[in-house]
Amino acid sequence: MNYICYDCSTRYLLESNKWKCDCGGLLGLEYEKEAVDFSKTSISRNHSLWKYIDALPFEKDDVWQEITLGEGDTPLIKLSENLYAKADFYMPTLSFKDRGAVLLIAMAKKLGFDRVIADSSGNAGTAIAAYGARAGIQCDIFVPDSTSVKKVKQIEAHGAVIHKIPGSREDTAKAAITMVEKTNSFYASHIYNPIFWEGTKTYVYEIFEKLNEKMPDAFIIPVGNGTLLMGAYIAFEELMASGQIAKMPKILAVQAETCAPIMQAYAEGEETVRPIESSGTLAEGIAIAAPARGTEILQAIRASSGDIIGVSEESIINARKELALKGIYVELTSAANYAGYLQYLDKYPELKEQQVVFPLCGAGIKSN
Ligand SMILES: *Cc1c(COP(=O)(O)O)cnc(C)c1O
Ligand SMILES: [Zn+2]
């Protein structure tokens, strides 16, 4: 198993503790994986992501599989004839980030680290802190000083050292990277470390499994740094390669209109994403003005014949209210997904006849 540079194809052992290529390029992951046997996983009594071990970057007998908090197998709620909501706020730390965090922390444990560093707008840091605590690994979590008080408390409760950084989300990342480089720690980054996507890909596995091995036509996916999107795309590619699906579903991506660098690049036909000046958004979890993985995200959207739109602040607030009146209470960031679905329905009325899944990514009590 190796990290491999997207730009120059240099390979690095996982033990090298690289998070970026010497050429500056970003790393992907290269390893032999087997196809998931969904007839087996669908009846497994293992309530964790480790039931998909055949398709994960670990050996079958790895003891770090004990690093679980019962994540995964979240409900798929049927809202109308063709519309499903995947309730990932049922996760142990109340967001989908647990999918990536359990794998990333298991890898840090396997490699022998007792201290890791991460930066986040809140939910990824919370997930890393919780799984770090589970694994007996000390965490240093960097967050923007504007992060919700509730998220900061949740991180601190798990015993992580919190570093509140003034300025933008990008300033927070810079501060974390400075500490990583100074201390040569494991960078438990949901953005730079491709092992995180190996966890988020299970979002798609679970949906495919629950729908009796039928793939929905389209996935509404929020995009900040694109960790759910990249995970979903990896799962689609795997299932195509194994012949388990014949056609790739569409990725219908959603950004907040006031912070939409990827949407902008897509609309302009660009292949790379230029950072933007953001005027801020209520959807703090997707407020990423300079996404590191922009090129890969654009490729994935295009390869799936998908699309990307921006939703207004007002529509996010309304979508949150509407969902709550259906009995579903999500954080503001997560309401953007439903707002996105409604906007896509206007843009593509034929979606009404197609099977669509949107994620409930984070619990309502996480934000104000
Ligand atoms: C992290 C997060 C997102 C966005 O995910 P990215 O990986 O940054 O694209 C969306 N919603 C919630 C609730 C999140 O925690
Ligand atoms: Zn390189």
What does this structure look like?
There is one protein chain. With 368 residues, the chain is an alpha/beta fold. The termini are far apart. The protein has three domains: 32 residues, no CATH class; 190 residues, Rossmann fold; 90 residues, 3-Layer(aba) Sandwich (Rossmann fold), CATH 3.40.50.1100. It has a six-stranded mixed beta sheet with strand order 4-5-13-10-11-12, sandwiched between helices. Strands 8-7-6-9 form a four-stranded parallel beta sheet, with helices on both faces. It contains twelve helices and 13 strands. Strand 4 and strand 5 form a beta hairpin. The protein is 35% helix and 16% strand. Helix 7 packs across helix 8 and helix 11 crosses helix 12. The site of zinc ion (ZN) has 7 residues, from loops. The site of zinc ion has 7 residues, from loops.
Concise synopsis of the structure shown:
The chain is of the alpha/beta class. The protein has three domains: 32 residues, no CATH class; 190 residues, Rossmann fold; 90 residues, Rossmann fold (3-Layer(aba) Sandwich). It is built from twelve helices and 13 strands.
